[in-house]
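ok, trying the design again with the full structure, not the truncated one.
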């Protein structure tokens, strides 16, 4: 399997080449009815046994949809509650809820990444925690910039659908060279974010998060990197499908996609706030 920028898809079980017991699978980028691809290196040890069917595109779509649905429900509830607390000038509980959701989501994500085992309950719990985290933040942003929540949701959905179309049509192919470029860009973005955070503690402003022109440009770059990370996520899920991995692994694919979508939504929300400040 090619490398990926998403830690959720790294170091998955590997094994010998071959097809799952149900025969070749059809991935995101392979039309129904076409001959199957040869097994990419990896995943052989996790092929679906005779008693368990291999995962399909529908499995990934359904599990991802369920995860997004849970995040949306908890996010809306958290946003409504955050706004009610903000109206009462009680920001302490809102910040506590935000911090709690972030910590729970982080802990669950680390457990899933290091365990490298699919889990429906943990994926849904992660989605619920991230929904609370994002909802609390969104509620506060909505108080300052009415309408920004819907714009951020539509923007995230637009990028997701757009990149899925780009991947499915083959307009941009995920090659080892592209993967290395994306991972390099991601590393650069993370280093700049950390540098900005550390220097900010000492009163040094790099201008990356102050809402100015440089901050807008940097945010656009981050959104672009996140969008290309989605391509790598689609490709990772596609390879899992082609490898004939058990259907339960669709939960792991959904988790990987959720981590990128959370990051993408936060950055789009941030960019919209910058634009409304101008």
């Amino acid at each position: 399997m090619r490398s990926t920028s998403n830690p959720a898809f790294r170091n998955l079980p590997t094994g010998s080449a071959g097809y799952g017991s149900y025969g070749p699978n059809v991935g995101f980028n392979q039309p129904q009815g076409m001959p199957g691809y040869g097994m990419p290196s990896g995943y052989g040890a996790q092929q679906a046994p005779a008693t368990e069917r291999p995962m399909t595109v529908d499995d990934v779509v359904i599990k991802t949809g369920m995860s997004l649905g849970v995040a949306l429900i908890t996010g809306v509830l958290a946003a409504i509650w955050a706004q009610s607390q903000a109206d009462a000038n009680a920001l302490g509980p809102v910040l506590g809820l935000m911090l709690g959701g972030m910590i729970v989501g982080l802990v669950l994500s680390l457990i899933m990444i290091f365990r490298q085992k699919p889990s429906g309950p943990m994926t849904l719990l992660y989605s619920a925690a991230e929904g609370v985290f994002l909802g609390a933040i969104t509620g506060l942003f909505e108080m300052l910039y009415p309408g920004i929540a819907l714009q951020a949701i539509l923007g995230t959905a637009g990028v997701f659908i757009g990149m899925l179309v780009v991947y499915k049509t083959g307009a941009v192919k995920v090659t080892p060279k592209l993967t290395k470029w994306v991972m390099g860009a991601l590393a650069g973005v993370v280093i700049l974010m950390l540098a900005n955070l550390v220097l900010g503690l000492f009163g040094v402003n790099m201008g990356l998060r102050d809402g100015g022109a440089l901050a807008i440009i940097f945010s656009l770059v981050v959104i672009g990197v996140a969008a290309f990370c989605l391509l790598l996520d689609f490709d990772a899920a596609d390879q899992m499908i082609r490898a004939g991995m058990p259907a339960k692994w669709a939960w792991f694919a959904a988790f990987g996609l959720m981590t990128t979508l959370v990051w993408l939504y936060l950055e789009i929300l941030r960019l919209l706030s910058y634009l409304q400040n101008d």
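Keeping the full-length input from now on. Helices lie at 57-87, 91-115, 120-144, 148-169, 176-201, 213-242, 250-277.
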